[in-house]
Structures are given as C-alpha cells and as structure tokens.
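BUG-347 | component: ligand-complex export | severity: low

The export step for NAP jobs runs without errors, but we want the raw record kept on the ticket for reference. Input record follows.
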Amino acid sequence: MLGAGAIGCLVGGLLAAAGHDVALIGRPARLAPVVGGGLRVRLAGGRSIASRPAVYGDPLQAGADWGVPDAVALTVKAFDVGEAVRMLQDAWPAVPFIVAFQNGIGTEDYLAGVFGPERVVAGTVTLSATLQGGEVVVFNRSGGLALAPVPGGEEACRRLATAWTGLPVPLAVASHAASLKWSKLLLNLVGNAVGAILQWDVHRLFRHPLAARLEHQSLREAVMVGRAAVPAFIDLPGYPVRSFARLVEWLPSGLFARLVGPMAARGRGGKLPSVALDLAAGRARTESPYLHGAVAREAASRGLDAPLNAALASLIEELAANPGLHQRYRDQPEELWRFLEARGLRP
Ligand SMILES: NC(=O)c1ccc[n+]([C@@H]2O[C@H](COP(=O)([O-])OP(=O)(O)OC[C@H]3O[C@@H](n4cnc5c(N)ncnc54)[C@H](OP(=O)(O)O)[C@@H]3O)[C@@H](O)[C@H]2O)c1
C-alpha cells in the first residue's frame, strides 16, 4: 500500500485478513502506532480485524526486504499521485500491477500513460473510513471494494480480481474503469462542495432549502456530464448508483432533499466529506479539482454546461489558497448564493 492513511490501512488490513502479505508504505509518524501495536480494522457492524503488516517509510526500504511486489495499491490522495509515481519509478519501475484507489477522475489515465495500460487497474472503496492511531474505523455498514480495467488492462484486472478473493467485505468487478470512477464520483459529490464551503454535514445541508437546491442542481449537472462521458453508471457495493442517478434527474429539488437527503446522510455514516475536512484543517490542497473540477472540465471538453460545478470548484480552490476568506461562507448559504449570482448563476 503506497500511502498508509485511512484507505491504505483499510485495504491493507482487509488483504492481510484474507492471507496476503501486506506492506504499508507511509509517513513514519502516522505509522508509529501500527509498528508498536499492529493494525486493526473496525468494521461498522462491530467486527474488528487485527493484522501485523510490514511497515516502511518509502518503497526503496520496502524493496530491500521484499524485492519487487506482486502489486502496488496507490492509496495517496489524488494530488499526491505524481510524487508517489516518482517514488515507484525509482524503486520498482517493473511492478506488475498498480491499483489506483483515488476518488475522482484522471488518475488511471495518468498512470496508464506512465506505466502502460496493461499494468493499471482502477480501484474504488465504498467504505467510509478514518485512521485513528493504529485503528481504521469504518463508518458505514454497507460497502466494499470494486475493481475495473482501463482499456488495454483487462488481463491485469482479471488476474488481480482472481487473486483478491476471501476479503471480509464484498469485492465487485466492473467492466470499465471510467464507469467505475464516474459512478463513485456521483457518490463523492453528495454534500461535498456545498458542505465544504458551509462546513455542514449532508444531513444539515439537505434540510436547508437553498443549500439543498444548490446540491441537487450540481448533482444534476454531474449526472448529465457523466452520461455523456461513460458507457453507463454502475451500481457499487452497497450503493445503487444507477437508481440514484435517475432520482437526481427525475425528482424536483424539494422532494429530492426530503427523500434522498436522509439516505445520503446515512451513506456517509456521519463522516464529513474529505474536502470539508481539508478546508477545515486549513490545507492548501483538496481533491476538489478531481471531483467538481473534473465535472466542469469534462463538460467543457464536450461542449456541455456545468457552470455550478465550475463555480464551486473555483471557490474551493480560492478558500484553500486563502483560508481567512472561509469565515465569510461558513454557515452562510445566502453568501454562497450571492457568490453564484455574481457569476450569473441562478440555480
Ligand atoms: N477515507 C475514506 O473514507 C475514503 C473512501 C474512499 C476513497 N477514498 C480516497 O482514497 C484516497 C486516499 O484517501 P485517505 O482518506 O486514505 O487519505 P489519507 O488518510 O490522507 O491517506 C493518504 C496518506 O498518504 C500519505 N502520503 C502522501 N504522499 C505520500 C508519499 N509520497 N509517500 C508516502 N506517503 C504519502 C499521506 O501523508 P500526508 O498527509 O503527510 O501527506 C497520508 O498519510 C483519496 O483519493 C480518497 O478520496 C477515501
């Protein structure tokens, strides 16, 4: 696992439970509790899975002990993929499989360009998790892992899916990386930008008429662009994305908020979306360019309109670059509305 945060430790802990040899490569300070007491994955049903993966500070150290691994799961955030790839190229330029677990759009194409599509597999996780000391805490009950091939990587995906059997959570295999990632993107977008800007969780957001309307309209844009971008939306472990997309399209905003809002809040398991957490922590980078930003870019490349996603992505970038500005929008949906109106938007 290259990047030993919530997802690296979660996927690593699940693979270790299925009998695989797992090494976590990550920040030494973050991994110190795992070195001391091992790794635990606490699933939402209460089941706790203990393992003792090997732990390293970088791939060169791991390579000295392990040689070339069978597969590397890239579990850093999307904005750290470039640096992680440089480390991979230094240590294991010939690693057979690289699985990209990033949320958002773009990582697989980048990796396929660097390593060749025959070695790249798209991965996604529909479990919402955080790393607390040496324990991964999973918030939602339903969920699992899914894999899909990039064009030209079908054999890699088939071999990996065959090897990764016996996991303690469901593992689905889809036919197209792009469908997998756009389907997961729809789930990621729920409550993400508007929630990050207002610092509201999904539950609160859908109970406020203005915020709920913005949320619904931005999701409508994403469904419209996604339908043009990929062969089809697909259902993911625990999440009926195809029905969700249809509800986004069919329901009026008020009904959408009342019917889908509570379900969406439960789906997140009470965890704030990562863009909200990154802004709250004053981090200069978020994954928003790979989420709402990707919707806006894809729309532009196809001559479609996704102005709300473009405006929300640009405001988040502004807030990440200038944390002092965030005070103006925190808890202030009317202020966000004014920001959008000033750009000619009337969602
Ligand atoms: N958490 C979830 O519930 C969840 C669910 C599904 C998908 N995802 C996706 O999974 C990806 C990973 O998310 P996460 O929540 O696991 O993030 P995270 O907890 O921040 O973990 C990423 C870890 O990788 C480390 N890292 C970054 N660059 C590195 C490098 N070059 N070498 C070694 N370590 C490096 C980071 O350290 P620093 O922070 O010190 O840079 C951090 O500890 C994201 O794309 C996210 O959207 C997350």
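Assignee comment: Attached the raw record above. The chain has two domains: 6-173, 184-341.
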